[in-house]
Amino acid sequence: MFKQFYPGEYIDSTYHIDFDRLYREGYRGVIFDIDNTLVPHGAPADERAAALFAHLKELGFSCCLLSNNDEPRVKMFNDAVHVNYIFDAHKPSRRNYQKAMEIMHTELKNTLFVGDQIFTDVYGANRTGLRTILVQPIHPKEEIQIVLKRYLEKIVLYFYQRQLRKSEKV
Fold first, then answer.
1. Residue 131 — φ and ψ, nearest 5°?
2. Does the pTM exceed 0.70?
3. Does the N-terminal peptide bond of residue 44 adopt cis geometry, omega within 30 degrees of 0?
4. CA-to-CA distance for 62 and 34, rounded, in angstroms?
5. Residue 70 and residue 86: Cα distance in Å, rounded?
6. Distance (Å, rounded) from C-alpha 147 to C-alpha 84?
């Protein structure tokens, strides 16, 4: 029932993802959400985010920010990391996930998505056919509509983790 919302992986932080391993596995593009995935909601890119994107570029990854925010917010973050971006993305619509791959010159088999929300980020990427990595939100301060969705996400994550435990026993 909830499988369309399940992430491929669930990790505590974007900054704990082994991008070196993913590159060795053949991934060449990473699409990122910004708020609460890379920095707290509304914050500019910090040193940690800038270092991550520098490392990804050194590895050979193409990156694209995919945000439902307006352009000034996305541009403010991007001024420090200098990657491609799409604002007002209308996630979970598939259109801009596909556009991000076009911009990065990647395809489904070598692109992954990293985000902190199930009903926008993961659902849209799953609908598109991308590998998804869900990360825990960086900071608890969020807009009210997101706070409400987090309660529903807890239900989905309960069933997701229950399924993982079942599959580990097999």
1. -70, 135
2. yes
3. no
4. 16
5. 9
6. 28
- In the chain, at which residue ranges do the beta strands (DSSP E only) sit? 9-11, 29-32, 62-66, 84-86, 111-115, 131-135
The token pair that represents 120 in the structure block:
């926008």
Please say whether the beta carbons of 125 and 94 come within 8 A. no
Which residues, 6+ apart, have CB-to-CB distance to 143 below 8 Å?
Answer: 41
**pLDDT single digits (tens) 101-124:** 999 999 999 999 999 999 999 999
Name every residue whose Cβ is closer than 8 Å to that of residue 170 and which is 6 or more positions away in sequence: none
| CA 22/CA 28 separation, integer angstroms | 8
Segment 52-79 mean pLDDT: 98
Give the C-alpha distances (Å, rounded to integers) separating 6 from 67, 70, 158: 20, 27, 10
Here the tokens at position 30 are 């990473």
